[in-house]
Amino acid sequence: ELKRFPSLQADIAAAATEALERFRDESRRTVLRLVEMQSSYLTVEFFRKQPLEPEKNANPQATNVDRYSDSHFKRIGANVTAYINMVCDTLKTSIPKAVVYCQVREAKRSLLNHFYAQLGRREKEQLGAMLDEDPALMAKREQIAKRLELYKSARDEIDSVAWK
């Protein structure tokens, strides 16, 4: 529908871009909070709670690195990978929601308020220019509107005389 009105389309696009830019920082802060919240959840305690399995024939005097098998470290790696994948999946769904909530929704409200205020201030000629309408067509519409007002006035006058 807006393709018929390129100037209006350009005004809407400019206002939408400006509104989205205004709320970008809030959206960015919310997304960063989500990422920080997820990244701070995995702590050293997570690894300490991992059950330790020393090798069966391990030397009790050996260091921790020597005492535990590769399977223990592989299990830690698998758990960390699983956790990271879970966090990534969570962020893949929650970040777009946060952006829509903090940026798009607020920009839409702002855009509507902007156009209510801006269109209300504009003169008839400015609105006509915004619609890229042919001046001859606008003049014809004005003539028809005046004629309609005359018809309504005549109808009201006939109605007032007819009921007396």
Description:
Keywords: Motor protein. This protein has seven helices and no strands. The chain is 79% helix and 0% strand. With 164 residues, it is mainly alpha-helical. Helix 1 (6-22) packs across helix 5 and helix 2 (24-39) packs antiparallel against helix 5 (70-121).
Keywords:
164 residues, mainly alpha, 79% helix, rod-shaped, Dynamin GTPase effector, GTPase activity
Low-confidence stretches: none
The count of helical stretches stands at 7
Shape: rod-shaped
Helix content range of the residues, please? over 70%
Protein structure class: mainly alpha
* CA(first)-CA(last) distance: 49 Å
Radius of gyration from CA coordinates: 34 Å
Roughly what is the average pLDDT, rounded to an integer?
79
Q: What percent of residues are in strands?
A: under 5%
Q: Report on the biggest sheet.
A: none
Q: What oligomeric assembly is this protein in? A: single chain
Order of helices and strands: HHHHHHH
Number of strands: 0
List strands and helices in order, with pairings.
Blueprint: H1 6-22, H2 24-39, H3 44-48, H4 64-67, H5 70-121, H6 124-130, H7 135-162
Helix pairs in contact: 1-5, 2-5
Organism: Dillenia turbinata
GO cellular component, one term: cytoplasm
Domain GED: 73-164
